[in-house]
Design goal:
The protein is of the alpha+beta class and 160 residues long. The longest helix has 16 residues. Helix content is 21%, strand content 29%.
Length: 160
């Protein structure tokens, strides 16, 4: 497994629409494994391909709940409802946190590493993390959604 270098803002790739994945092979499996290990190494709960310099619709999320690691390839949001406001951060914006309002519930459709389609429903923090990573695949940064930036004191030492 290889820990990749995180691309920092203002890199152009972070604000681009990513290409859909069309090839499902061992190379993709290794990339997903590397993305997971990179996310863990940098203490994140999600990582999108553009954050390691790749223009592909690939993301991983793991909020350490019963869902385990979620691998999303070419994900699409099918449905959202409700509302939640909470702190968000991003590995590409170290030390920057802000309040972001997002739907509390999300239903997505994506492909797994073998190219098999699946749907997933999520609420709360997991829904937030999934939406944050899918935004990355379309060049949308959390900073464009922040209603208020947070100080270290407001975070209470807890980081996402």
């Amino acid at each position: 497994m290889t820990v990749k270098k995180i691309v920092m803002h203002p890199a152009e790739i972070l604000e681009q629409e990513c290409k859909e994945v069309t090839k499902f092979d061992k190379k993709l499996g290794k990339l997903l494994d590397d993305m997971y290990h990179t996310m863990i190494e940098y203490d994140g709960v999600g990582l999108a391909a553009p954050q390691i310099g790749l223009d592909q619709q690939i993301a991983v999320v793991d909020v350490e709940d019963d869902h385990g690691t979620i691998e999303m390839i070419n994900p699409r949001i099918l449905e959202t409802s409700g509302e939640q406001t909470g702190p968000e951060g991003c590995l590409s914006f170290p030390g920057i946190y802000g309040e972001v309002t997002r739907p509390n519930y999300v239903k997505i459709e994506a492909l797994n590493r073998k190219g098999k389609k699946y749907t997933l429903e999520a609420e709360g923090f997991l829904a937030r993390a999934i939406q944050h990573e899918i935004d990355h695949l379309h060049g949308v940064l959390f900073t464009s959604l922040v209603t208020r930036y947070l100080t270290d004191e407001e975070l209470g030492g807890q980081e996402e």
